[in-house]
Write a structure and sequence with these properties.
Structural class: mainly alpha
Helix content: over 70%
Largest sheet: none
Shape: globular
CATH superfamily of the domain at 111-237: Tetratricopeptide repeat domain
Radius of gyration: 20 Å
Distance between the termini: 31 Å
Oligomer: single chain
CATH class of the domain at 111-237: Mainly Alpha
Strand content: under 5%
Amino acid sequence: MKDLEKFEKYIKGELEEGDLWEFKKSLEVDASLAEEFRLYKITYGPHANKKHQLMYELNDIRQKHTNGKHIWMGWRRVSAIAAGLVILVSIGIGLIKLQHNTSNQALYEQFFVAESASFNVRSATNSLEQPVLDGMQFYELHNYDAAIEMFEKAPNNLMGKLYSGLSMMELGEFKDAATKFEAIIKHNDNLFVDQAEWYQSLCQLRLGNRNNAIESFRKIAEDNGVYKTKAIKILKELNAY
């Protein structure tokens, strides 16, 4: 897989400002890169599990063989992978169905990529209220309940609202998250409208409000914003483009 170092740095919030925006733009226009990052996040991100890690490892081994590289492993590792394959086969049919299912939840999981707080914190440190800075730190540590508690202490801070909503999405509180994003959208005159519209649309989709989600995605697709490409892609998946 390419760009593994950037994937790891993005997840850890270690990308420099210029590299961060370049990486985000690349995810928008390069479908292959976006898919590789999605798989990497599933495998090595905060919610990784052994099943996906095994699939990722096998895929990497297959690619190395394709490139003509020699792979050496002991028979014990081969046996372990073979045993893993047996387990994967037993759940393979359900997994394949999930991957090809255009249900609301499947699409949400496919298109949701959590924001890193590092860039925004570095860009606006001097203007941020202390509770928001504290909330950002909790957010980066994946302590979303504590992050929300901090953000609520600065209720009028738009960046706090954005990351409060993102924290709620991580906790599965999609209705409350949508409310946060809607407040940002209604404010309109701020830097976070594009992000708020995109994540609010995903919340509507996850909540089962398919028609509302489609309407929101169409609005994004008609604009020239950062999420235009993704909006078009998800509308195609919804058979609405």
